[in-house]
Amino acid sequence: MSSTLVASSELKNEKSIKTTSSGEQSVQGTPSSPSSSSASSTSAPTKKSVVDYIRLFSLIIGICLGVIIGALDMNIVSTALPSITDQFHSSQDDGWYGTAYLMTLSAVQLLWGHLYKAFPAKVVFLSALGIFEIGCIVSATASSSAAVIVGRAVSGLGSAGFFCGCLIIMSYVVALRFRPMVNALTGLLIGSTQAMAPVVAGALTSGPGWRWCFWISLPIGGAAAALVLLGCSIQEPTDRLNGKTLREHWVSFDWVGLGLWIPFIVCFILILQCGGSQYGWTSGSMVALYVLTPILLGAYVTWQWRAGENALTPARIMSQRSMMAGSLYMLFNAAVESQLPYFLPVFFQAAQGKNALQAGTDTLPYLMSLVAFFIIAGAGTTAVGYYVPFMIVGSAILSVGAGLLSTFTVSTLFGQWVGYQVIAGAGLALGFDAPQLTAQTVFNEAEHDMTIALTIITSLMNLGGALGVSIGTLVLNNRATTLLVGRVPGLTSSIIHNSGLTDILSLVPAKYGSIVSAAYAQAIQGVFYSTTAFAVLTFVIAWFMEWKSVKDDHAASSGDKEKGKEK
Q1: What CATH number should be reported for the domain holding residue 201?
Q2: Percentage of the residues of the chain whose pLDDT score is greater than 90
Q3: Does any domain span residue 74?
Q4: Using CA atoms, how far apart are residues 445 and 204, in angstroms rounded to an integer?
Q5: For residues 109 and 159, is the Cβ–Cβ distance under 8 A?
Q6: What angle do helix axes 179-206 and 321-350 make, rounded to 10 degrees?
Q7: Are both 6 and 134 inside the same structural domain?
Q8: Arithmetic mean of pLDDT over the chain
Q9: Hey, how many other C-beta atoms are within 10 angstroms of the C-beta on 34?
């Protein structure tokens, strides 16, 4: 962490030099006079005090606490679902507790990116945190199932803001060459918190009750807000709005693009969450979604090309080679990252008959591997400078690890399931943060673009998470239905789709328990086949990345700069 502090100091020195020049050119990297530069470089170290470092630590820890509660809230509800639906007698709503959160989280992510462009980062971050906490209070005090769903939607709205804000603020206070370590820290927090969320939820649900799954976020969020407020000031672009007034910025904002993006996300997530469970795949509602989703996406892409620089996701940014490849890499890598901690405990409970606590404990090899290799990836990228090798090697290892997980059976030995988890965790961690580094490196000299690029990456990370869990659940339920219906008396497709594993085992005679376990083991193999497919896609995509170094703080390609001059 001491290197991070040094990095912050160095970056602030660079910023102060830039602000001595006038106009937008100073933000884009035009150097100031030699005397100014010399004075800044010689005097800056003497200005740093213990208080400065404490305030920087305060800011970073506060942001990390925000990431923790966001990642926790993303996965904690799945374990609490039986208790919530039992209290409100609302089993028909169980899918919406997760869907409402994912919808708002993914739909408004891009809007938050533009808010960070228009307003001070601390103000936007704390506003997002406040909205998230309001949602948690609504869910915790809910007197009906509908109120829980509304609270979840509000929480998703807020978490979208501080997830992307974490990366944006870090890019302002930490020098580029040290960001791999900071990004590794945030990735580590997200991965480990999501992996531990079911254990935390189980302890809270069986203890004080399911409402504490939401109450727990309040003290953590309060501490995060206090630390961010007390933290160091954030040196942001001097001309945040590119010469526009605030009114001009919002008049020219891409409201049409946002109006197309939000319904596309809603339709896409409804297909993933409701198809085959709440609605049949050939029902009128699903057919309407099949038609609307590609139409909305096509309209959105077309409009983005026509909107030019005012677009929600400017084509100039998305068509950049590394940005396009990095975005797709993040989408599929996040799908893997969501599937592993979600379905590994299901395997241990379904195939090996362990309880929820034992199943959570048995995923510790995966968690420990994540921790170790996030650190290795961050330190290695900082030392070497290049992040693409970690993407290629990581996705190759991940493909092997996911393939090995797909061989799990009822009789899989201890050494096998430990080793396979370690391999998969190592591969995932090595390349997970690279897309974020791509956005920060390629657009390092154009901070307005970097804000939007980081928001796009974060949005696709959330979409990938929804994609992975939804496809995994679909494969699991469909394969279990095929293997069990007709073989086990009393089991129907509806029961399998709408009940938990514990409920299913309690509904069938004991003599059929081994059949149910074997069927679920085979079904989970199918889930890990999809995990392997996602991992292989990341390996292919990694080869299309440009090799850029984080050691070069002026990493924007000369070609991009020349294009900017011509414009």
Answers
A1: 1.20.1250.20
A2: 25
A3: yes
A4: 46
A5: no
A6: 30
A7: yes
A8: 80
A9: 8
pLDDT in the model for residue 67: 85
**What are the φ and ψ backbone dihedral angles of 275, each rounded to 5 degrees?**
-65, 125
Q: Tell me the residue type at 86.
A: D
CA distance 461 to 443: 19
Q: Which residue has the tokens 């095929």?
A: 482
Q: Does 519 fall in a domain?
A: yes
- Of 289, 311, 333, the position where a domain reaches its end is 311
Say which residues have a Cβ less than 8 Å from residue 421's Cβ, sequence separation at least 6: 344, 363, 365, 366, 369, 401, 405
Considering the domain architecture, whether residues 179 and 269 belong to the same structural domain is answered as no
Domain membership flag for residue 75: yes
DSSP string, 355-405: -HHHHHHHTHHHHHHHHHHHHHHHHHHHHH-B-HHHHHHHHHHHHHHHHHH
| Whether residue 241 is found in the same domain as residue 259 | no
469 in the same domain as 560: yes
Six-digit token pair at 168? 């944006």
SS (H, E, C) 188-237: HHHHHHHHHHHHHHHHHHHCCCCCHHHHCHHHHHHHHHHHHHHCCCCCCC
DSSP-derived 3-state class of residue 140: helix
Contacts from 271-280 at CB under 8 Å and sequence distance 24+? 272/466, 272/467, 272/470, 272/471, 272/474, 273/95, 273/98, 273/99, 273/102, 273/466, 273/470, 274/95, 274/99, 275/474, 276/474, 276/477, 276/478, 276/497, 277/95, 277/477, 277/497, 277/498, 278/92, 278/95
The H-or-E segment that residue 447 falls in is: helix 447-484
Q: How far is 519 from 517, CA to CA, in rounded Å? A: 5
Measured in whole angstroms, the distance separating CA 183 from the mean position of its chain's CA atoms is 12
Kindly give, in sequence order, each residue whose CB lies less than 8 Å from that of residue 221, ignoring residues fewer than 6 positions away: 65, 66, 69, 129, 132, 133, 136
Considering the domain architecture, whether residues 367 and 240 belong to the same structural domain is answered as no
Q: In terms of domains, do 549 and 527 share one? A: yes
Structurally, how many domains does the chain consist of? 3
In angstroms, rounded to a whole number, what is the distance separating the alpha carbons of residues 200 and 195? 10
**H runs (alpha helix) in 485-512:** 493-498, 501-507
Gap between the Cα atoms of 465 and 452, Å rounded: 20
Alpha carbon 291 to its chain's center: 28
**Residue appearing with tokens 């580094």:** 437
Q: Are residues 301 and 335 in the same domain?
A: no
Residue after which a domain boundary falls, among 245, 269, 290: 245
Across residues 272-299, what is the average pLDDT? 84
The answer to whether residue 42 is domain-embedded is no
- 3-state DSSP assignment of residue 28: coil
Tens digits of residue pLDDT in 304-329:
888 887 888 888 888 889 999 999 99
* Same domain (yes/no): 204, 347: no
d(CA 280, CA 422): 38
- Distance of alpha carbon 337 from alpha carbon 356, whole angstroms: 20
- Over residues 258-280, the mean pLDDT reads 83
Which pLDDT tens digit goes with each residue over 28-38? 333 344 444 44
**CB contact at 8 A, 395 and 341:** no
Look up the domain containing 160 and give its range.
1-31+47-245
